[in-house]
Design goal:
single chain; alpha/beta; two-stranded parallel ribbon; 11 helices; 16% strand
Length: 307
């Protein structure tokens, strides 16, 4: 399987390329990408500026589109929200335009989406057929997926991977949580009753490859563990893994003061289940939060403070 990966220098993209044993990549700076990723075939692409070059798709069987501006990198100013939306919606539209221009097209397009599609849903169990929410991120994800689904009319099998909170040693949400938790300053966010649809990075990669190689998988696929937990339970489990107390809750008003509108992603409740993955035969490597965190922390014994 020859793969093209857009967004290959991110946490998931790097892991995916390692598992694939290489591939073609699209990136803003091909020279920097090669320095980061090693000997890869790299093509320049600014997602919002137009379609990527047609030659990048030569001989490609599957396209993984993972590119997008980070959602949690700062306050959601008007310009920041526009960049988050355009990088995903306009970028995907331009990618599909490139696919449309090809005489020989890949068979599969796997596009990263997010569980933000569902909005804030309390204790409701959410599967792929559940309706879209009404928050900013829900609207972005809906528009993002709609652009990806245009490729189905071109004969591609399209999968939109609605990804949860990714746990990994080398980056992502967990890396941001570890410093305060290691100091004993971790605690629930708000009342801690919101559901957190977590997933180990190894299963993210496994599910993306499963989507690419399993012909029955099409449309949305929830990329989450089969065992979501509340934020309160996540906090206790992480504190236990680190051997630290977790007694300092962060009130919602404090989150709002610190992060503005972006704080909604910290307190939204999404009890998301991976129905499509399970029904299509995927077997999770990490379906238990404790073992997933131990893996990320490199634990057999006590935490060493290294990540």
């Amino acid at each position: 399987m020859k793969a093209l990966v857009a967004g290959a220098t991110g946490l998931i993209g790097r892991r995916l390329l390692q598992e694939l044993g290489g591939g073609v990549i699209l990136g803003r700076d091909p020279t920097r990408a090669r320095a980061t990723l090693g000997d890869v075939e790299a093509f320049a692409w600014q997602p919002q500026d137009g379609p990527p070059p047609a030659e990048a798709f030569s001989g490609v069987d599957v396209v993984f589109h993972l590119a997008g501006e980070p959602v949690a990198a700062g306050r959601w100013t008007v310009s920041r929200k526009q960049a988050i939306r355009d990088s995903r919606v306009e970028g995907t539209k331009n990618l599909v335009r490139a696919l449309e221009s090809l005489e020989q097209r890949p068979g599969v397009l796997v596009v990263a989406s997010a569980v933000g599609y569902y909005g804030d849903r309390g204790d409701e169990e959410l599967v792929e057929a559940s309706p879209q929410g009404s928050t900013f991120l829900a609207e972005v994800c809906g528009a993002w997926e709609a652009e990806a689904n245009e490729a189905a009319a071109l004969g591609l099998r399209v999968v939109t991977a609605r990804t949860g909170v990714v746990l990994a040693a080398e980056g992502g949400a967990l890396a941001r949580m570890l410093p305060p938790f290691r100091l004993g300053l971790g605690g629930p966010l708000g009342d801690g009753l919101q559901w957190m649809p977590w997933v180990h990075v190894d299963d993210v990669v496994g599910l993306l490859l499963h989507a690419a190689s399993t012909g029955t998988v099409r449309g949305p696929m929830n990329v989450v563990s089969p065992n979501p937990v509340t934020n309160r339970e996540f906090t206790r489990t992480l504190g236990r893994a680190l051997g630290r107390p977790t007694l300092l809750p962060v009130p919602r008003w404090g989150l709002r003061a610190a992060f503005g509108e972006m704080s909604q992603i910290l307190v939204e409740s999404q009890r998301v289940l991976p129905e499509t993955a399970l029904e299509s035969g995927y077997r999770f490597r990490f379906d238990d939060l404790g073992s997933a965190l131990d893996s990320c922390l490199g634990k057999g014994g006590a935490d060493t403070g290294e990540s």
